[in-house]
Amino acid sequence: DADWEYAEELLEKTVRNYDEFVDLIDKSAPKWGKERIAKTDMGLMTKALSELLHFPYIPIKVTLNEYLEFAKDNSTQKSSKFINGVLDKLVKQLQSQDKLVKKGRGMVG
């Protein structure tokens, strides 16, 4: 039950904030443009942003590692490096703006 609740909440928050997340990604990958980014990669990055921003008890490293592993298994050969670069840039940006708040021991970083 907890897994379903998490999945539903992640999907709902991703859909609700999708345009905002796509805009953040687009600005973080100016040489690409959102229309050039593979749909799988965009989906992974928007879900990762949703988890980073709306699930304060999931550590940043856990989120990044999970989505990078998923990209390695389910997208192009270069996707994990691309996603890692974009998400790393966004994490630093969001932290500097105090928008990325994690709670609990060992949750930051």
Structural description of this entry:
The protein is an all-alpha fold. It is 69% helix and 0% strand. The chain contains five helices and no strands. Helix 1 packs across helix 3 (39-54), helix 2 packs across helix 3 and helix 3 packs parallel to helix 5 (79-96). The protein is globular.
Q: How would you describe this structure in keywords?
A:
mainly alpha; 109 residues; 0% strand
Task: Draw up the topology in text.
Blueprint: H1 2-16, H2 18-28, H3 39-54, H4 60-74, H5 79-96
Tally the helices: what do you get?
5
Order of helices and strands: HHHHH
Stretches where pLDDT is under 50 for at least 5 consecutive residues are none
Shape: globular
Number of strands: 0
Radius of gyration: 13 Å
Query: Biggest β-sheet, characterized?
Result: none
Estimate percent helicity: 55-70%
Give the structural class: mainly alpha
As a percent range, the share of strand residues is: under 5%
Mean pLDDT: 93
Q: State the distance separating the first and last CA atoms.
A: 29 Å
Summarize the structure.
By secondary structure, the chain is mainly alpha-helical.
